[in-house]
Amino acid sequence: MQTSTSCHLYGLKQSARAWNKKFVECLIKFNLRAIDADPCVFVNKDKEKTLILAVYIDDGLIASTDNLKIKDLLLHLSNELEVTSKPLELFLGIEFKYFSDSFVQTNQSKYAKRVVNRFRMNEAHPVAIPVNHQDLSLETPSNQSEIVNAPYKEAVGSSLYLTMVYRPDIAYAVNTVS
Question: Which Pfam families does this chain map to (predicted)?
C-alpha cells in the first residue's frame, strides 16, 4: 500500500506531522489503534479477525486473517486519500517471493549489494574468521586525510541495519569495526 494526500501538506516545515495526523485520524475511524511498543504499527482486532498495518512514511504493509478486512481498509483509505495497492514484493529493503499460499521467502540481497557498491567494497577480498585483533590497531595511519573523508560512520550504520534486520551472523564483525 502506498498513500498520498493533497498538496497543501507538502513543502511545509510541519508537513510530516500534518500528514501523520491526517493518516492516524483516518485509521482511528476504521478502529485501528497504534500499539504501545511502536506508534507505526496499528491493530484492529475483534473476536475472530485481526488486521495489522505497519507504516513507514507513506508505505504500508497490511496483514490480516481475513482478506475482506484488508479490502475494507483499502476502500476506507481510498475515500480520504490517494491509495495504491499491489502485491508485496519489496518493503523497507526486504524482498518477498511467494512459492505457494503457505510459503514466502524473504531476503535483503539488493540492499546488501547496494551497500557494498555504495562504499566501493565490491573489489574487497574476504577475510578468514576469526578476526585477527592485531590488525585492528588504533594507531594513527599515515594516510590520515583519506580516512577523515571516508564515510566510515555511514558504512557501519548500513551494516548495523543489515545486522539487526536480516544478518545476525555478521554482528560480531560489525561490532568489532564499530
Answer: RVT_2 (PF07727)
